Amino acid sequence: MTKSVADNVNPNIYEKESEREKTAADFDEDVEDLFDEREIFDLIRNINDPEHPLTLEELRVVEESNIRVDNKDNTVVVNFTPTIPHCSMATLIGLSIRVQLLRALPSRFKVTVEVSEGSHVSEHAVNKQLADKERIAAALENKNLVQIINQCIAAA
Amino acid sequence: MPNLELIQALSGHKGIVWNVSWHPQGKIFASCGEDKTIKLWSKEGQEWTIKTVLVDGHQRTIREVAWSPCGNYLASASFDATTAIWDKKSGQFECNATLEGHENEVKSVAWSPSGQLLATCGRDKSVWVWEVAGEDEYECESVLNAHNQDVKKVAWHPSLDILASASYDNSVKLYKEDPADNDWSCIATLQSHESTVWSLTFDKTGERLATCSDDRTVKIWKEYKPDNQEGVIVTDRESVWKCVCTLSGFHTRCIYDIAWCHHTGFLATASGDDIIRIFKESEDSDPNSPTFDLVCTKLNAHSQDVNSVRWNPTGNKELLSCSDDGEIKIWSFSSD
Asked: Does this entry carry the keyword Metal-binding (chain A) (predicted)?
C-alpha cells in the first residue's frame, strides 16, 4: 500500500489468547477430530493487519465468539470487525481471511466471511463483494494483490 | 421416479471448471476454466474423452465458451479482457480473431441465433454487441452501458435479435436494435431479484425467461406484447416483462446457472450448495401465474459448487455440469 497514513492511526490493542490447551482426546486416534471455532480462530488470529504491525487478534478484528462452524453442513462463518466503521481496508482484510481459510481448510467447507453487523458503513457492499467467488477468483489472479495478501497471512 | 443418472465423470482440467458448452449437433462439447485452457470432448465408443486442448489463447481464467449456431466457430471469454474466436479452417482449431475492447474481465459470450452477431459482457459494467463483418472480422456495433455494476451473463432470444443480460446490480436488461437508426438500446429492465443475477435462459418460444440469483431463487418472467389479451399496460409499443413465478426454498446457496431445455421444457439449476435440481411446469399451469414442480434433486452432484449446467441441444435429456472441484459430469435424465 502506498498510503502513508493509516485509516485508524491509533487503534486499541488487546491481549492475545493463550494457546489452546491440549487434552488427552487430542492424541487419541479413535476420537474423530472435528473442526471447532477455536481451530478456525487459530488459523486466522495471526493474520497481520494490512496497516499496522499487529495481528487481527490484537486489534480484536477477529474473535473466537464471532466464528461459527457446522461440521455436518460443512459451513464456516467468520464475522470480522474493522477497527473503525469507515475502514478502507475492510475488503482486503476479509479477502485475507478468506484466502487463508481456503488454503487451510478441506475443500468440502463452504466459507462465508462477512463484516460484523453494524461495524462498517459499507457493510452490505463489502459482504456482497466477499461473497462473489467470481470476483474473488479474478482478484486472486492479480499478482500485486496476492503479494499483499500473502504478506498479511505469512505469519498466520 | 425421475432420476439424474451419472454417465461419466470427466477430469482433465486443473482447478475450477467454469463453463461447458455443447456443439449444436450434441456430439462434441467444450469446457474451460481456471487453467486457461479449452478442452474439446467427444465420444469414443462409450467413453467421453478429450479430443483437443486449446492453449495459449488467453493469459487468465477462461470464464465461458460458446459454439456458433453453425458449429464452425467457438468463442471464449476470458478474465484477460479479450474474447477469442476459434475455428478449424486450417484443419485444426486455431484462434483467428481476438475481440478487444472490454477494460477488464470478460465474463460471458453468446452468439445470436443467426450467428451474425456476438454479445460479450464484463466487469466494466458494459455489454458489447459485435457484428460478424467478414472472414475473421468482427466489428463493434454497440457498447451498452445500462447496468451500474458488473455484468455476469448475456443470452440471446432463440429466434430474434433480442439480447438479455444479468448483473451484479440485481437486475436483468433486454436490448434490441432500433431499425430506424441502427442503434441498440435497452428496452426493458427486469427487477425483482434481491442479489446478483448470475444467469438466464429463454424458453423455446423466447416469450419467457428464467433467471437465477445469489438470492437463492429462480424467477420466471413472461413477455406481455403490445395489445396483449391480459390487459397488461404496455408503453411505447415495447413489450413489458413481468415476474410471474418465483421458485424459492429449494437451493440453500447461490444459484450460478440455469438451463431451459427447448425440447422437453425441463429447467435445470446449478448451485453453490453442490446440488443440481430439475423443475418442470405443472400440467394445469396458468400462463399468467405458472407453477413449477421440483421433479429431481441430485444432492452432492459435485463435491464443490456447481458452476454450470447445459442440456444437450438434440433433446436427448443429456445434461452437462461442471464444478469448482475440477470435474465435468455427464448425466442422463429420465423423467418417469
From this structure: no
ipTM of predicted complex:
0.95
Interface contact B304-A137, CB threshold 8 A: no
Which of B195, B172, B311, B297 has the alpha carbon at shortest distance from B254?
A: B195
A26-73 pLDDT, tens digit per residue, is: 777 777 778 999 999 999 999 999 988 999 999 999 999 999 999 999
**Across B23-80, where does the E strand assignment appear?**
28-33, 38-44, 47-54, 62-67, 73-78
CA distance A156 to chain B (A): 24
Per-residue pLDDT tens over the stretch B133-146:
998 999 999 999 99
Q: What Rg value do the Cα atoms of chain B yield, rounded?
A: 19
- Tell me whether strands A75-80 and A110-115 are parallel, antiparallel or unpaired: parallel
Give the separation between CA A154 and CA B9, rounded to whole angstroms: 37
Which of the four pLDDT bands, split at 50, 70 and 90, describes residue A156? confident
Helix (H, G, I), strand (E, B) or coil at B292: strand
- For residue A107, give the nearest of B34, B152, B304 by CB distance: B304
- A131 vs B214: CB contact, 8 Å cut-off? yes
How many CA atoms lie within 13 Å of A118's alpha carbon, on the beta-carbon side? 0
Phi and psi of A102, rounded to 5°?
Answer: -60, -40
